[in-house]
Write a structure and sequence with these properties.
Blueprint (H helix, E strand, L loop, with lengths): L4 E6 L4 E8 L3 E9 L1 H5 L6 H23 L8 E7 L3 H18 L3 E5 H7 L12 E6 L4 E8 L2 E7 L5 H11 L6 H9 L24 H12 L8 H27 L3 E5 L6 H13 L3 E3 L11 H12 L17
Parallel strand pairs: 1-4, 4-5, 6-9, 9-10
Antiparallel strand pairs: 1-2, 2-3, 6-7, 7-8
The structure holds 5'-O-[(R)-(carboxyoxy)(hydroxy)phosphoryl]adenosine and zinc ion.
Zinc ion binds next to helix 4.
Cofactor: Fe(2+)
Pfam families: TsaD (PF00814)
Family: Belongs to the KAE1 / TsaD family.
């Protein structure tokens, strides 16, 4: 197959991401515009504002990305776009731009699952993992362990029964009065505190399966802040204990997933994969047992278009890229 030039479009939430990948060569360029500052005033993502901002940013970002790579739109062989999960209105912006551009250029528009983008993003690094591996997907919407046998070969091993790990970080940050986006800010505060000064539970750590539960942890944090001896100066210690509790559970389950599948490579993906304590503990604990952990580069941890272009290119190479049919496009918010 001649090298395929693939554009990737990501608009599932509050980042407009565009990536350009060429099969056989890898990522040529990518651009992300984050709406974080805009939503910060509201304490969270406002879906209607997110959609409108994607409309504003998407075409200039596509132009910038093509320019950075020195390539023309007319050279594109395919366009991949995030079809879900995410905010319906935001997804529709990316889907409609992808589908119309594809129609104009007479190339296929290929719907890509957002989580597949995250899942394969560690393969964008200079030392990529090889199939098969176990993936720990930890984002704002998902906490999942998967066995990845190859492109499109994903078996769910376990997931959260309630809040996702990133969601737990965000909700806990909010109840501690921290500004949006809570997760990274909470984790930064945790670095200034000491775990163990508070005692929080490790939900489902010893459940004997690969399921997770994080909503009780947030409630336990709330309870701790309502005690008479709680003062705002103790927030860093509470944040550190919260982070340690989440990391404890994620590490234990990741190790159990490797043991259960008999695999030695663990790939971590999604926004929480940027957490430095999680990175440090997984590296140490899995390394000690002869395994290896792969993280996406920090710029590919949060939402971006590079991972969507890359997943689309991998699907094309594997002969598993199904174009949307009939000119009608569907987004799948959930
Ligand atoms: O993958 P992502 O960018 O978007 C989703 O698809 O959800 O993940 C965002 C999530 C948010 O919940 C955010 O708080 C969390 O990742 N996050 C972190 C850190 N950086 C981002 N959580 C803990 N520690 C971090 N350093
Ligand atoms: Zn994501």
């Amino acid at each position: 197959m001649k090298p395929q030039l693939v554009l990737g479009i990501e608009t599932s939430c509050d980042e407009t991401g565009i990536g350009l990948v060429e099969t056989g060569r890898g990522l040529l360029a990518h651009r992300v515009f984050s709406q974080i500052d805009m939503h910060a005033a509201y304490g969270g993502v406002v879906p209607e504002l997110a959609s409108r901002d994607h409309v504003r940013r998407i075409v200039p970002l596509i132009r910038e990305t093509m320019l950075a790579a020195g390539r023309e739109l007319s050279e594109l062989d395919a366009i991949g776009y995030t079809t879900g999960p995410g905010l319906a209105g935001a997804l529709l912006v990316g889907a409609s731009v992808a589908e119309s551009l594809a129609l104009a250029l007479d190339v296929p528009a290929i719907p890509i699952h957002h989580l597949e983008g995250h899942l394969l993003s560690p393969m964008l690094s200079s030392e990529p993992p090889t199939f098969p591996f176990v993936a720990l997907l930890v984002s704002g919407g998902h906490t999942q362990l998967m066995r990845v046998g190859g492109v499109g070969d994903y078996a769910l091993l376990g997931e959260s029964v309630d809040d996702a790990a990133g969601e737990a970080f965000d909700k806990t940050a909010k109840l501690l009065g921290l500004p949006y986006p809570g997760g990274p800010i909470l984790s930064k505060l945790a670095g200034q505190g000491e775990a163990g000064k508070f005692k929080l539970p490790r939900p489902m750590k010893n459940s004997g399966d690969l399921m997770f539960s994080f909503s009780g942890l947030k409630t336990a944090v709330l309870t701790a802040t309502q005690k008479a001896d709680f003062t705002p100066e103790r927030i860093p210690d509470l944040a550190a204990e919260f982070q340690e509790a989440v990391v404890d559970v994620l590490c234990a389950k990741a190790r159990a997933a490797l043991a259960q599948t008999g695999l030695s490579q663990l790939v971590v993906a999604g926004g929480v994969g940027a957490n430095s304590r999680l990175r440090e503990r997984l590296r140490r604990e899995i390394g000690k047992r002869g395994g290896k952990v792969f993280f996406p580069e920090l710029e590919y941890c949060s939402d971006n278009g590079a991972m969507i272009a890359f997943a689309c290119a991998m699907r094309i190479e594997a002969g598993k890229a199904a174009a949307a049919t009939g000119g009608a496009f569907a987004v799948r918010p959930r």
